[in-house]
Amino acid sequence: MLTYGNYTLNVQPSYVTIPGTGKVISDGYQEQFTVSSSSATSLNIFVPVAQTYLTNVSLTGLVSGESAALSFSTMTGYTFYNITENADFTAYLPHGKFYVNVDYLGTQFSLLENNIINSINVSLSSSQVAFGNVETSTNTTINSFTAVLFNKATDKYSTQNFTSGSYRIITNQSWSDIVLMIYAAGYAPAVVQNTAGKGLQTVTLSPASSNIFVNYSLSSDLRTVTMNISLQIKNNTALPFAQNSSVGSIYYQEMMDGSIFKNEIMNYVNGEIQNNTQYSFLVDGNFYNLSKATYAAPVIKTNSVFDNVTATYVNDGMNYTDYKNMNLKLYDLGTSVISGKFQYSYAIKYINSSYSLSSAPVSTTFGNPFQIYPISSPQWVSMGFSTVKKPIFINSQMSFSWSKMVSQSYTLNSTQKNTIFVVPANTNFTMNLSNAFYNPVNQKYDYNSPGTSFTWNVSSKLYHSSAITINLTAGSHTIQINGTSSSGFYNTTKFIVYAMGSTNSPVVNFTYSYVNQKGITVHKLINKTSLPSNLTYYFSVPQSSQISFTSDNSSLPVMVNGTVYKVPLVFNWTFANSYKTQGNTASYSFSKPTIPVNGQIMRQNVSINVTSVALTSLNLALKVFVNDTTAPTPVITIMNSAGKNITSASCFKCYHTICQLFF
Q1: Structure confidence by residue, pLDDT tens digits, 317-338
Q2: pTM
Q3: How wide is the angle at C-alpha 245 spanned by C-alphas 332 and 341, nearest 5°?
Q4: Which CATH number among 2.60.40.10, 3.30.70.20, 3.40.50.880, 1.20.272.10 corresponds to the domain 392-500?
């Protein structure tokens, strides 16, 4: 029996045998629950378990006549099996990762094992074993990686590849002479400190890249193309074109290659300068011939390499008119991945303001110059040009929002040259142009694309984003936006925001109608002149008739720059039985007649709240007298000679107001 309160259910870790299943391991389980009522509380719990398998355990380095004490524990620290052995043995162990804790010849250490094929090898020479996990800075396991053992005494290295997210390295070399590095494709190498005999270590790798920047510049007459290649390599990337790239670091790569390292870089960069651009850069299918080239010696530092070369190519057959509908083809060398990313980044500049990049099969920026984002593998990239197209502001598609907003109908006028919006005065509101800025070059609403920028001018205050939040005093305000598209082209727009104060009140003008008992439709008008000062209106309608209310002619007029506009209104109706509806029209049938109570006439109520989109409002009260149109029902009482009521329902039948008696 439990009293009211919060409880925690704990299932202790266990290593047990389940009939029909075998030995399993549970790391335990915990669940919180609350007892808050006298009724029975039930819990459905699921305790995860790991199946074990008969596994061969080999002891490497065991001295004859000695024994080793071993304990096996889960990744969460639960020790599920202990044994002392002087030879290889078998045990029921789970698949996957777990720890083997060793006590041997006075030394205690732990090993991370990964049981995949029901066989593990436990090395008892702790000084020769290094093991650990590899993950990202967000604690995501990196399954495939390379471990490098670099011997500082001999300048030799070896590599081991791992695919399970963890490593275990046994070496006969002295760890004092070894540098252990871990690297993975796209990640910078990391040096593992204090490796052997230190237990489990977690190695964290960070994404990294180095770049070769290739910049092309086209002349105004298209007869000259200048190419500049800038090599900027950091220690987080090995050079794939040089020897010993599998060492994963240019620091150790340079140490291994020695004097030839500089020549390897020079040969590579200089080899990028070809006699013509037939296999690298084409304009409308035409290539350019080498005119001159300027080479610079590479700058090699401890952890970086820089080099630069510039070449000029010419083709006298080209003409500035070829810019029209021009097609560029560039051979992109893509990205090489060893440690880090060795990636090519291309940029193209041209001298012509009438045409711009319009299409490409890969991700690019627009504008001038434009950049081709690094791609994964080598390929020809074909890029089309077309006439410059300015971005388009579609004012009517501006989005507005504010607290307690009652309607999305905030547009007073939607023409592009005279767009007017209404908002509440002295209230924070947000303007967003995400659906109002269109780039015809890439045919997208690219308000958030790289290279896109905006400047809003609101009463001489400047804002720079696609959405801004401001507060305006009552009155008319002109907003100007200057925008530059991701294609590098500029446009501007203006519109008006009318901030409406609380003194602007809706003007009521609506009708109600119904069909009377004679089949005649009755129309009645309720407007400003027919309403008393307390905004309460009295009228009568027949019982059970459908009453239709229409408020289409109600309005809230405002004047902006000499022209009157109507502010959108929202109508909320509440009828006698708490029935509620919203809209310019409403229908209701009063089923109960108005009956005097103690000499007082109790009219039925209808309330109408009229609120403008800018939050100014008006409340109306309708007092309705419902005429009783229900036909009377006769009551017949039959008395016997003794004065006793002998009336029975079976004695008569009534048809409307005529009753037939049965005796």
Answers
A1: 999 999 988 999 999 999 888 7
A2: 0.53
A3: 40
A4: 2.60.40.10
